[in-house]
Amino acid sequence: MDRTSPTGYGLLDGRVALITGGARNIGRAIAMRCGAEGAAVAVADVDADRVTSVADEIEQAGGTAFGVAVDMSTEEGVGSAFESVEQRFGLVDVLINNAYARGPRAAWGPFLHVTPSAWDEFTRVNLGLLFHPTHRMASALAERGRKGTIVNISSHGAARAHRNYIPYDTVKGGTDSFTRSVAVDLAPWGIRVNGLRPGAVEVDSDDPDPHVRRHRAEQIPLGRAGVPDDIASSAIYLASDLSQWVTGQTFNVDGGMAAQARAPQVETQRVWTPANIADHRPGG
């Protein structure tokens, strides 16, 4: 799914990066790019085989990495992960909060069918995946007077509703609020917090039907679905000193999808493209 090879410019030289949900898709792409940019990378995920595989990929590409197989939604799991990273690389000063748990089946579907127990479980786990790593990292850095950067992976669902995704959209709305609030609170310590809202990104669980994929891409102003490396590039910007005066912001990385009022399929006027612009009559 990567569109570009992970060649870097040393933007994270000397940094220690921990990527949650780093075993596949967007998380894997961010982990690979952090390694290419010079960071020592801890790839954290519940999938032990995959975190080892991603860490091996980073090292084979010339980077430094290891895998941490742990549940990052609990204080205990996060504490264990950070201790392992600190013993091996030192303090984590780049945190990418990418992980989310799909949760119970009853958390997905019509609102009237979402059960209270599924709601409680989904929000507890997914807000824990956001809170616990952030709190552990920020506490360690503040205690030692060190600066750092945090990037939270949000979603369009934070601002625009998906049908049948009520708990998910709620948690992503919380992600955006958390990003703003924690950024303001931690700014005096020099810890920056920002977020990304990926648009339609091709991942390994997507429908393989080419017609479905084409239909999805046709709704995007830039004319294609995203790939994980599109998100990774923006994450590197926010994690590095290129964005040293940016905090409390959440950016859409979506090919222009959120900027349009209507998708082309439901537009009330003709959508002009290089293929048909010659048909346009000025003033017509």
TrEMBL record:
Its EC number is 1.1.1.-. Keywords: Oxidoreductase. The keyword Oxidoreductase applies. GO terms for molecular function: oxidoreductase activity. SUPFAM superfamilies: NAD(P)-binding Rossmann-fold domains (SSF51735). The keyword Oxidoreductase applies. It holds the Pfam family adh_short_C2. It is an enzyme of class 1 (oxidoreductase). Belongs to the short-chain dehydrogenases/reductases (SDR) family. This is SDR family NAD(P)-dependent oxidoreductase. It comes from Prauserella salsuginis.
